[in-house]
């Protein structure tokens, strides 16, 4: 097919001269492959007629293309797309780059240690049974209800409001409903202005760290602990001080020891079902922690992601509910309440911090998903979230009991664990020196994904025998199958 | 109603001693208001019977409550909820705090200048006509199609995959479809591994800046320009060097001047419809910019958010499509293609930078909305996005023409503007020294929201007479009404 140039569009009202519009259009066609190297271009007279422009304009366009090496001209033959298309990069500088292929590396330096924490997501093989690290069962998530709410918003009259730019602090409706929900469930006496809606608890921790921490500030966290938070604090420039976690939570004597030695900026604490060990911070230690924060003037970052799931006892009310002086930043998430894929979390603090966090949030991603936030506000308002929690608490309670019984029955003498009072996982120790890595590897080839014990201790090389075994995402049948495989593997490693 | 304690739950398998479980449960009830100050608690014998525990356990629980000052005991009368409930904060330190109310300020210092850029979102009055800064019309967004895709995923078999943790780099399906889409529309020769899915272009700029910039690095941007990006570079510690923008885009002589004086780390450029002035960077300047980047080894951040909307001429292919040495980071967004509320953007670069950006992204918010990303992948795959672009390009083209004609007709001699070749807004100057602030103020009281001219120039105090007037979100009727009000206001300010 002969190229006629009829697809070139011209607008004489534009600031760009017409000859350049034509040249750029032809370059586009060459780059898109519409015009192949070596193919003929129409004569200037013909193209001028096609495009209703003066012939001189076409000559100027062709001159431009020739100057940029996009075309070759041969006297008495005409003008042709160049066989060697222009490479705008001087070849001697990047000798190794291949024309036309996307470069392997940037031309400028990128510090590969700027963020040293590697991405880790690997999807497990689809045919596998999974004992995960302790997540809710996504199959129980009220997605039908979410979609119902989306449908409600997919309405001509709502769209101008919820599909455009909105409040950086998050949906006002959601903050109103959340303040009510947190008052009812946690005794928090806050108003919507104290809430910033984030993408999961992760973003709340990130914002807090970036605002509060300056280089070499001391941050205290538990060991073992949640490395996803530790990485954020390290990235913000903090020196981490780790304190042991026992059956009552973080060791407050150790915390006070550190406070006496140096100025502490903040402490990161998971008061319910400490991740990974599932212990709950005792009431005495909570009181002690608040006193220490007041005495030594540090911030408490209270990550209470697991508050909504208790099977045995009432949850202890958050530190934030007892905090009358503004020591506590309270963080929570619907990612655990509903599903990890629902990326709605929140941070709660006095307004001077919320303002700074909101501004940073605006720099990072402008705002959250308004439709999702509005849908969640409605689900909270009409009680759907409450009903979901009630229903899923019952199911997870049963699953916890069954999981612990199965462990007891099938792995007696081979593992050690305490029954957790809530949450989604059991903190379990392999006895007789069996290594989690070995179990994970053997289990995988038998069709079961299970933790290999990494990402619990800050020293990744520390050899221990613990894993988190999530029970919440397994139906009774899956649980039986999974523990049967696990028992077989562990017994074999024990020489049984 | 007498409090019997029957709602207290106990689990003997727990790590927490039973007496503490009981004490904590009672504290929770006090805090929730189930137990009022001064109300009687059941005797230890009675409560022991109710809860099936030894009486000593109840005595220990009450001792704990007394020690923590939650209860008072009166000999021969019994045990009562304390009238003055414990305030865990020593009063002398925070004399101004009121017990029970949420604190006004944090107890620790928060630097209010850490992020100096204030949040700005203000919803306009609902009854107003709006000439916005140039956004797509959300009423045209294919939300019905999005909801259709959501429904498809709200299926038992998909949920375990898409509602749990997923790839930090973004949906693989979306990256595959996007690579195809970008090859078709922009001549970009990339594969999915070169793409990071972000929350809007904003997050892509943030990640790039945080990874590449160290304190006092020089960054070049246009003036006037997009202050949302400038704020990010300043926050990352950059020294901004501003270069003028004329009718062919950023002044490359000025860029080279700076390069000769000092080491430049990166340049931020909006090649199509520069924000705010709507000019397109000419082909010669594009070539020149790539050459300068290669010679002076700086990074080009190419924010091409407006590529998909051209009404008069073909778009010029991205710098990234001509970049064989890895100088260019290409940034785009569906927030402009579809609606600002759809927070999906992307950055494209060689893998060494994508790896770092992905790791930082994981620290910030773990991952994007998988359901939304999968839905968008399907819309790209089955051509819905292509059809939407075709349809909306036609509509916006007509709206641009009509808007410019109305301006011409109603405000001749009072404003000056060029017809933009694409995008969503006209860059318009009020003549005769009329100030944008005055127009905006008077227009607002007449029922029209319109830009007051801030947020275009880096020096916010610079007195100029320009605004961006968005035509894309206005129907013909709304447009007529809006420009009628505008004309009335501007004429009055001109004394006509």
From TrEMBL, chains A, B:
GO terms for molecular function: DNA binding; DNA-binding transcription factor activity; pyridoxal phosphate binding. It holds the Pfam family Aminotran_1_2. Residues 16-84 form the HTH gntR-type domain. Transmembrane segments: none annotated. InterPro entries: Aminotransferase_I/II_large, HTH_trans_reg/aminotransferase, PyrdxlP-dep_Trfase, PyrdxlP-dep_Trfase_major, Tscrpt_reg_HTH_GntR, WH-like_DNA-bd_sf, WH_DNA-bd_sf. It comes from the Bacteria. Keywords: DNA-binding, Pyridoxal phosphate, Transcription, Transcription regulation. The keyword Transcription applies. In the C-terminal section; belongs to the class-I pyridoxal-phosphate-dependent aminotransferase family. PANTHER family: HTH-TYPE TRANSCRIPTIONAL REGULATORY PROTEIN GABR, TRANSCRIPTIONAL REGULATORY PROTEIN. This is HTH gntR-type domain-containing protein. It comes from Pedobacter lusitanus.
